[in-house]
Amino acid sequence: MSALTSHGPGLHSFSIGLENSPDLEAGRKAAKFIGTAHHEFTFTIQEGLDAVSDVIYHLETYDVTTVRASTPMYLLSRKIKGLGIKMVLSGEGSDEVFGVCLCAVSVNGNGAHRTGYLYFHAAPSAEALHEETVNRVNNLHTADCLRANKSTMAWGLEARVPFLDKDFLEVAMGIDPREKLFGEQHPGAAKMEKSVLRRAFDVREGGGACGEAPYLPDSILWRQKEQFSDGVGYGWIDALRATAEARVTDAAWEQRARRWPADTPQTKEAYMYREMFDQHFPQPACAESVVRWIPRADWGECAFPTLNIRRFPLSVGSIWTRAESSCCCLLIGKGGFMNACVREDGKIWYNVNYIRNG
């Protein structure tokens, strides 16, 4: 990307989020570093909520994770097309190729508080990780590529996905899966997800020309993965849940299994999306065509996806202190914080950057 910005017409980059969201800040830094003409857009909670039904119509799905992430992308695509741009590059596919997917873990029994972990971190072996990456890549059309294609094409914008280029896939999927393992439970493995890809953009480590700078700033290159629906602003998911809570009555919720015996909604948010879907597509065959994104249940505690994170207020202390719940802990120290998702035996699964408080 840096090389391309120095040849031919200038490249444009785009980001969207709620005011002061993490993705806006990250996009700003990356664009300044590589020299693109950057376009930053914001949306309000209400604008997002107003678009949800249209998003479900265009994507033809009620999958919670897909709807959450597709709505900001749908709004961004409208802005980009309004600038007269016809084609964009998007980063779908790299998580599945390199073995990184986010998942939620309930902190308490009723699921009111959650934290996220990277469920590929729990891969029991390199072989198992490779098999799962193949499975995820083969099913990208049901989730991430569905979002990238239909959120953009709803406005006549074409999205191309370079991480799914055939030549790139032949190389990336042929990498020894041991190079994709990460976490302390795998001796000798990288400490961070997608380290192979990150190192490719860090020419200092890769043996680049004398003193050559990396392709991305360290704050971006070594940034913890963040799910798009969280990166656009942590209030987005909160608003969706609150809206569903107000919209779906307790009486209707109690009858959910009778209304939908197959693929019964597990949350009021899922109920709301399913109801919107049925309004657009009342035929039973339409719902039967929907494929939901669900991680492997045999790799850990997680039964469904989506990260839910926010900065906790920090307690002041001279040493790290530990606040535990059923399956997550927060390590708090003076001047900073470190979060971890833990197993029941107390062993840390993975350090993350932020944690959401409710």
From TrEMBL:
The record's annotation in CDD domains points to:
Asn_synthase_B_C
Q: Which GO terms describe its molecular function?
A: asparagine synthase (glutamine-hydrolyzing) activity; ATP binding
GO cellular component labels: cytosol
Q: Which UniProt keywords apply?
A: ATP-binding, Nucleotide-binding
Which residues does the UniProt record annotate as the domain Asparagine synthetase? Answer: 8-99, 122-286
Q: Give GO terms for biological process.
A: asparagine biosynthetic process
Q: What is this protein called?
A: Asparagine synthetase domain-containing protein
